[in-house]
Amino acid sequence: MDSPPKRSREETENDYDDAPPRKRSNSHSPRNGSPTYRLAERPARRYSRERSVDDSADEQRYYDRRTPSRSRSPSNYRSRSQSNTPPPRKPTALNYTPHLILRGHKRAISCLKYSPDGLWIASGSADATIKIWSSSTGALEHTLEGHLAGINTLTWSPDSTTLASGSDDKSIRLWNAQTGLAYPTPLIGHHNYVYSLAFSPKGNMLVSGSYDEAVFLWDVRAARVMRSLPAHSDPVSAVDFVRDGTLIVSCSHDGLIRVWDTSTGQCLRTLVHEDNAPVTSVCFSPNGKYILAHTLDSSIRLWDYANGKGKCVKTYQGHTNAKYSLSGAFGTYGNRADPEETYAFVASGSEEGGVVLWDVSSKNVLQRLSGHYEVVLAVDTHPKQELIASAGLDRSIRIWKAAPLPEGRVKQERSNGYNSDVLPPNPFATDSPAFGTPVVGTPVNSSPVRQD
């Protein structure tokens, strides 16, 4: 008897497109109380580790929807081609060096964020405290106390005046970053751990994701839930707003990434990789055209969610991530004063105790930062300067600063230019003057240690 025909991958993908969430299960706190901090709450299932088919098609990427920056006008393209000027050479290595070490937390640090104005670093820990540090000197400015359990997530308001925190105590608190005082009314509504938070670009809304499998949209001023989305069938591990606030992205241990319409609460797109690994972190690219996702198969994937049904265009590997919820960030390198010589990189922590930097376009590892001696859970990049902050289970925050490559180590390759068939050197170029603008930082001793 003839066996039934195998379903094509295209037919299989159609099953996942815009599908409604599966029936929600009853989530309860672990029997042994509070979980191991930032440990994936449910054991990772076994998945195929075969090479993803998305890697085999990297040379056929479609990128005709790129938003050109002011420097990429048609006249600039013509002038370069007419003058036969060779494209700029693209560095293939970075040289971030240790700059500051910040100590003060008594337990593992699960999250850290630079403020949008770049003046502060906020860190949250399993010790149930939040600390605000000066990003230039490393001085401790405030210690925020009020949560009853470990801190999972932090997010800054766009004007850098308010900090929001989510905790294992199921609450969300808002803090005045200048005074270090909490706003009187916490945001209560989730029935389990609050895993992720993000402010809207205008600062009037807050989105939260929780272990209770729901995504809540909050009115910050009224301190009430505007909309509740039964988003996933497993804990919601991360949420984010797109740069204009019209879309929300969420991800879960169920392996799904969902894109939502902020105004209607409708699920516009569902993204899922064939390996269906639990997704622990998502964020939009600076220009809002891509989604970066961490998964528990030691992979980070870049999704073009707006093209067709959405597809994975890049997969970054070289770190270890099979157990903990790690986070990462985008950054830029090269000549930041010239958009045509500015390139994008992805930074992420690793369970091996380091930080890995990849070139977005080539997927090559640009540098590995060593210094932490345990799992690095959180990584963030400075919004204006060439600085990277990292933290994790060793209870320390390390600040890394870009330095020129030693002469013997300088490597360069020809840029892939702006060929529309592949990702450009900086696929996240934006007209926003704040992105990629060089700012001279305050000179600081290269290795002071700050104590609480």
Task: Give an overview in words.
The protein has 452 residues and is mainly beta. The protein has one domain: Methylamine Dehydrogenase, Chain H, CATH 2.130.10. It has two helices and 31 strands. The chain has a five-stranded mixed β-sheet, with no helix packed on it. Strands 3-4-5-6 form a four-stranded antiparallel β-sheet, with no helix packed on it. A four-stranded antiparallel β-sheet has the order 7-8-9-10, with no helix packed on it. β28 and β29 form a beta hairpin. The longest helix has 10 residues. It starts with 8 loop residues before the first helix and ends with a strand. 46% of the residues are buried. The N terminus and C terminus are likely disordered.
Number of strands: 31
CATH superfamily: YVTN repeat-like/Quinoprotein amine dehydrogenase
Helix content: under 10%
Please give the CATH class.
Answer: Mainly Beta
Q: Could you report the average pLDDT, rounded to the nearest whole number?
A: 80
Pfam families: Beta-prop_WDR5 (PF25175)
Protein name: WD domain protein
Biased composition (Low complexity): 70-83
Biased composition (Polar residues): 443-452
